[in-house]
Amino acid sequence: MIKLKGIAASGGISIGKVVCWGQEEFIIPKRKIAHEDISREIYRLEESLIDTRKEISALQKKIGHEFGFDHAKIFEAHLLVLEDRVLIEDIIQQIKDKKFNVEHAFSQSIRKYVNALLKLNDDYLRERVLDIEDVSRRVLRKLLQQEEMKIDNAGGKVVIVAHDLPPSQTINLPKENILGFVTDIGGRTSHTAIIARSLGIPAVVGLEVATRNIHYGDTVIVDGSLGEIIVNPTDKQIKEYTEKKSRHARGVKPSLSSRAVKVSTKDGREVVISANVELPEEIPLVVQAGAEGVGLYRTEYMFLGRRDLPGEEEQYRAYLSVAKKVKPHQVIIRTIDIGGDKFLSRPEVPSEMSPFLGWRAIRFCLAKPELFKTQLRAILRASAEKNVKVMFPMISGLEELRQAKALIEECKKELKKANKPYDEKISIGTMIEVPSAALTADLLAKECDFFSIGTNDLIQYSLAVDRANEKVAYLYEPGHPAVLRLIQSIISKAHDNKIWVGMCGEMAGEPLFAFLLLGMGLDEFSMPPPYVPKTKELIAGVTYAQAQEVAKKVASLPTAKDVEQFLYGEVKRILGSNFERIVMT
Ligand code: PEP
Ligand code: MG
User: Fold this and answer.
1) Are 170 and 28 in contact (CB under 8 A)?
2) 73-105: b or e for each residue (b if 16 or more CB lie within 10 Å)?
3) In the CATH scheme, what is the code of domain 35-144?
4) Chain centroid to CA 558: how far?
């Protein structure tokens, strides 16, 4: 038994068997073979190539049926690698001339091939390297006769342990079979953590040594609330944590029976509690949680983990289905936030030194007006349902907002000409997640209809702390006075200019901060669906006056630690016996 400590990324407890993700490392035997074994080794090569082709075609078919044939195209490049005569001839040559065993000959030829492609410094070919490496792992697995560590093969639900789980991979995992996520790297607001929270899957990230200490088939306890992992626990620990798990489940169950109704404080201040979603499939969770619509629809997830781009019709169908399902409430559709830690599997997006500061979100969209307009037209068409709002990510100044709005006007004209209906008065919002936008919120507020504060980024940009880097996670402090001052100033500037202001960063769903934000005057709180019931209960259990009083005192506290301690004491005092259930589970 070993205990590991990481960053608590998504609350709850799970106990299960481990599947290690994306870390198969093969020990490749190197042998000289006898002359009479040459044909046998070539036969083994051909057999493994045929088996791999069958495996990939089956996977292609499965993905095609489940997610549409556009998604399945991703495997065409993989199949081409298996048919590459130059590569195959090279391997055969090594077996015949150098008399190497097939595994060694294969891995040598692949390495040569990959190095040659990398030297060409061509983005398209670099993209092909990933295909080649993926195919090569499959072939080697066949040659070495290793069973593929498939989640579906694991005989039930599993805990995924990985060095990293970028959104482009998480998106394709069968979420219904996943009990927990455990990663070496990442912070509380990295996108794996966000997805885990949205789906209510316990997760611990930033463990640094997880993949070194946890192996395929181990049993682990994931305590996502404390950020702890127990590897191969004793029977006593399993019993203890099974009890803790049922206590947690009881605590999470909302005692507020009202579903999807407005929530107000004891003294009558109404606020909107809405939900963040990444995929249309999450909408049932939103409805179940009693959220007042969707405050953030991260549309970029539709673009991840696939080679092609979704066209206008595909996007329109997705946005329309969400708009219809959340009625009578609203959905705020955020235009794509590609870049940062979310990348397209396409060659036209080069790798960058500092992707969070680079070609991301609105910057990427404005540089690709056709791609952007395809999305804007799809959103506008869905807005004919009259419950759609649109919002731009990572606006850093007024000019970007104006350019984006001008493209919306162009799209409106195109749709009018094509006789396609849309909401003429669609609300346009700006995410405030870059310090320059926060500092010029008065200017932005005059030219848009609402704000949504993106604290996940606002904190990383204002404190200069990479949100996905576990090494500096201790500096990622939502309660830092600099962050709180920025938030207070954004709220005041929005209200001075008569627009409403919400928050869709993770901070809005953290109970102590939600109470503080209520006191600071926030109008809308958007969070992963599982956090909605507790936040509604929190709001219904306090008065606005109490929250305002606390916010006033917090404004004079000098450090994040002081802020958190003070909030803890005050919220505990106000909620009394409900504190444990609402705040601590
Ligand atoms: C944010 O930055 O707070 C936000 C909600 O956007 P994302 O997490 O997708 O960057
Ligand atoms: Mg953001």
Assistant:
1) no
2) ebbebbeebbeeeebbebbbebbeeebbbbbbb
3) 1.10.274.10
4) 33
Of the two residues 323 and 28, the one the predictor is more confident about is 323
Cβ contacts of 5 within 8 Å, gap of 6 or more = 207, 227, 228, 229
Options 3.40.630.30, 3.30.1330.30, 3.20.20.60, 3.40.50.1000; CATH of 253-583: 3.20.20.60
Least confident piece of the model among 270-279, 338-347, 366-375: 338-347
The residue whose C-alpha atom lies closest to atom 8 belonging to ligand 1 is: 456
| Inter-residue contact 535 to 542 (CB < 8 Å) | no
Q: Rounded CA gap, 366 and 349, in Å?
A: 14
Q: What does the pLDDT read at residue 214?
A: 87
Q: Whose CA is nearest to atom 6 of ligand 1?
A: 454
The reply to whether ligand 1 has any atom less than 6 angstroms from the CB of 546 is: no
**Which residue out of 78, 104, 191, 248 is catalytically annotated?**
191
pLDDT tens digits for range 355-412: 899 999 999 999 999 999 999 999 999 999 999 999 999 999 999 999 999 999 999 9
Residue-range domain boundaries for the chain: 2-23+149-251, 35-144, 253-583
Spatial neighbors of 21 by CB under 8 A, at least 6 apart, are 160, 161, 162, 165, 169
Enter the CATH code of domain 2-23+149-251. Answer: 3.50.30.10
Cα→Cα distances 31→94, 98, 102, Å: 12, 10, 9
**67 close to 61: Cβ distance less than 8 angstroms:** no
**Token digits of residue 383:** 């807005």
What residues does 452 pair with on adjacent strands?
431, 502
Nearest Cα neighbor of 321 from 333, 309, 310, 311 is: 333
- How big is the CA angle at 133 (ends 157 and 203), to the nearest 5 degrees? 30
Q: Mutation test of ligand 1: which of 433, 455, 465, 501 has the most ligand atoms closer than 8 Å to its C-beta?
A: 433
425, 474 Cβ separation under 8 angstroms: no
| Residue whose tokens read 């006769």 | 145
Residue having the nearest C-alpha atom to atom 4 of ligand 1 = 454
Predicted model pTM = 0.78
466 lines ligand 1 (CB under 6 A): no
504 annotated active-site: yes
